[in-house]
Fold Class I SAM-dependent methyltransferase.
Amino acid sequence: MSQKPASDPIGHAMLAYLHGNKAAELTVHSNVADEEPLPASYFFRSLWEMPELERTALEECRGRILDAGAGAGCHSLELQSRGFQVKAIDASPGAVQVLQARGVQEASCHDLFELPANEHERYDTILMLMNGLGLVGTLDGLQRFLQAAKQLLAPGGQILATSSDISYLYEDEDGALVINLNGPYYGEVEYHMTYGEETGASFNWLFADAGLLQDYADEAGYQVEFLDEDDSQQYLVRLTLKQQNLANN
């Protein structure tokens, strides 16, 4: 009996778009908002279709780059065109097929926490765009990632990531926040995606407000520099290891 292929709605939507179905569209479901459509075309944006935060992040990239959650490779391909050596990773097998088909030179199917760390795989830039810090999933995942990244960063390396403060989702009619302080952090969101009749597994995504990220990164030994912010409370941050941590890394 053949094994049923793993569900991969995001990968299948991107593959459909790549193969000519320009109307391919995902539906995003979460526990904090109504379902929303997500056109597969969004993952295939050109440089000038990207928001300013992403273009700024690309300008700040340096050295050997790890593009985490690379999707269809719009950032990896732009960086390759500028002469950078880029390794693109994504947990979606379909996304990795798209990356390879579009010409990303190094693409592999990895969860953020499964990436092997060794002396030969150090990166000058770890890039996490499209609210990419969310890949860590939860606050516990953020702590785990900040420690694991120390083994992935080359000396003087940086993490460039975007995230958002979604507290506005919890405002009442008067603008006051209605948050259960005894419950989970409000930025820990549960998602699943559907494409046609295909439903993907649920996954966690973290939206970290700037103050919280500052605290967690400082505790983990990182210098924090907020580079830019947009009108939607999304920000771009650079994390670099403090000097005492570089000595121990």
